[in-house]
Amino acid sequence: MRASIIGLAISLLLVGCASLDAIRTQNRQRLLSLSPGMSKQEVLSIMGTKTIKARADDGSIINNPYRTEMYQSQGHTFELLLYYTDKKHLDYAITDDELTPLIIMDGKLDGWGWSYLDGLVQKYELRVR
After folding, report:
1. Who wins on pLDDT, 43 or 88?
2. How many angstroms separate the CA atoms of 25 and 33, rounded?
3. Predicted local confidence at residue 61, as pLDDT
4. What is the mean pLDDT of residues 73-96?
5. d(Cα 29, Cα 109) in Å, to the nearest integer?
6. Three-state DSSP class for 72?
7. For a FRET experiment, which of 94, 109, 110, 116 has its CA 20 to 30 Å from that of 36?
8. CA distance 127 to 56
9. Which residues, at least 6 apart from 86, have a Cβ–Cβ distance to it below 8 Å?
10. Is residue 92 over pLDDT 90?
């Protein structure tokens, strides 16, 4: 009886948790629904803004977006929304190359991806860390 109660408690804890693979897959799928020109609010509505507890040995918590950054240059405001989309290393550390940047320029989605961001960095002389 005690074992079944413990099993039930563990099952309930895992409900609502997602694997890191599921989080990455979900974020990549949601990218397909984006279009340049969408408002920041539309982007956040599609991509999500929830904190997700991952079913990992280390108890990882993934924020959506994982990280945000803001920059200003040449009269424009740039906001980067970085979402966890890739797995490059077999560890639980999430590095920049495992994130996809969504670039919000003056409140509208301008584009996404590292190549796109690199082009904007050069064009607008952004100092991105």
Report:
1. 43
2. 14
3. 83
4. 92
5. 17
6. strand
7. 94
8. 35
9. 24, 97, 98, 99, 100
10. no
- What would the two tokens of residue 57 be? 């040995």
Query: Exposed, middle or buried: residue 7 (CB in 10 Å: 0-12, 13-18, 19+)?
Result: exposed
**Which pTM value belongs to this model?**
0.83
- Distance, C-alpha 16 to centroid of its chain: 18
With tokens 């064009």, the residue in question is: 123
Q: Quick one: tokens of 105?
A: 């320029």
Structural tokens at position 108: 């509208």
Collapse the DSSP code of 81 into the 3-class scheme (helix H, G, I; strand E, B; otherwise coil) and give the result: strand
pLDDT tens digits, one per residue of 17-56:
578 888 999 999 999 999 999 999 999 999 999 988 876 5
Give CA 21 to chain center in angstroms. Answer: 13
**What gap in Å lies between CA 18 and CA 53, rounded to an integer?**
7
Q: Answer whether 106's CB lies under 8 Å from 77's CB.
A: yes
The proportion of the chain whose per-residue pLDDT surpasses 70, expressed as a percent, equals 83
SS in 3 state form for 21-63? HHHHHHHHHHHCCCCCCCEHHHHHHHHCCCEEEECCCCCCEEE
